[in-house]
């Protein structure tokens, strides 16, 4: 919910059992959990140019065992993500097909096993890179996943 005046009803949690008040997790309403039809997809942005994308490299097989351990450690505040070294890298070629130089952001999203079941998110953002691309040129963006 947003601060300030709003035409939307807000729950009054001042005199209620705290367990009955929303905690702001919005499960099912963020890019990570929402499985319905999207009006605007996560990461959608406007640009003065247009781009085409192609996967340049990706691993042939990936183990998610270390990712599960990372999620548990972060959830219990035992460790931060910055301590984990990136072990998998992806690259994408971006071509500016428009007539103007422009920036774009490449997002790395993954779908974990069991997505949308038992609180497992539909997708997770694992990396991003902002890239400046001149009109008609192609550049490679690199994303690293822990």
UniProtKB/TrEMBL annotation:
Write out the GO biological process terms. arabinan catabolic process; xylan catabolic process
**Start-end of Polar residues biased regions:** 13-25
Q: Where is this region: Disordered?
A: 1-25
Q: What GO molecular function terms would the record report? A: alpha-L-arabinofuranosidase activity; xylan 1,4-beta-xylosidase activity
Q: Which domain of life is it from?
A: Eukaryota
InterPro entries membership: BXL (IPR044993), Ig-like_fold (IPR013783)
Family that this chain belongs to: Belongs to the glycosyl hydrolase 3 family.
Protein name per UniProt: Beta-glucosidase
* Species this protein is from: Polarella glacialis
């Amino acid at each position: 919910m947003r601060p300030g005046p709003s035409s939307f009803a807000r729950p009054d949690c001042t005199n209620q059992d705290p367990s009955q008040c929303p905690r702001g997790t919005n499960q099912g309403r963020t890019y990570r959990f929402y499985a319905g039809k999207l009006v605007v997809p996560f990461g959608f942005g406007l640009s003065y140019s247009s781009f085409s994308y192609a996967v340049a490299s990706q691993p042939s097989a990936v183990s998610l065992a270390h990712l599960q351990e990372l999620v548990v450690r972060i959830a219990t505040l035992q460790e931060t993500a910055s301590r984990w070294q990136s072990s998998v890298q992806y690259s994408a070629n971006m071509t500016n097909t428009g007539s103007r130089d422009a920036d774009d952001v490449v997002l790395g999203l993954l779908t974990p096993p069991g997505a949308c079941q038992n609180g497992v998110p539909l997708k997770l953002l694992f990396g991003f890179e902002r890239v400046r691309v001149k009109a008609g040129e192609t550049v490679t963006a690199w994303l690293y996943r822990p």
